[in-house]
Amino acid sequence: MSLDNLWAGWRHEYxxxxxxxxxxxxxxxxxxxxxxxxxxxxAGNGIVWRGPLAFAVLNAYxxxxxxxxxxxxxxxxxxxxxxxxxxxxxxxxxxAGIAALTTAYRxxxxxxxxxxxxxxxxxxxxxxxxxVLPRWxxxxxxxxxxxGVRVMPEPLxxxxxxxxxxxxxx
Length: 170
Fold this sequence. Notes:
This protein is α+β, with helices and mostly antiparallel strands. The chain has helices spanning 10-16, 20-24, 31-36, 84-105, 142-147, 156-166; strands spanning 47-50, 54-58, 68-72, 109-113, 130-135.
């Protein structure tokens, strides 16, 4: 049996953008910490919603339109390091993200997951983040497998507007 490689070269920029400070856990060098304190939510910073303990931001390198990242504000790598009130806020933000995605996109399903650690696929392993993305029957196609690209049907500012407008009132 032979093993073929499918290259995802588009991910290189994302993985390479993680600084050495992020890899070793320095919160000052963490892109997620900079986002957490970057001002009010807007299409420019991609932050869809922010609370005192958790926030939701568009993934800059999405797998599908509307691909959200849900994060604690505090720089922490592992779920077990969150205080109970931070875990509650993180989960409530994920639930609100699911509601916004469902309203804005009417998907056939959703993926909710976390890559805990670099070996598990986390590009930025020192700041915990959950992925929440809408999925549709047949949303994968030959372009990813054959050409190594994803065809995104809308630009990030459009995704931001749709999700921001659909975010549940708190």
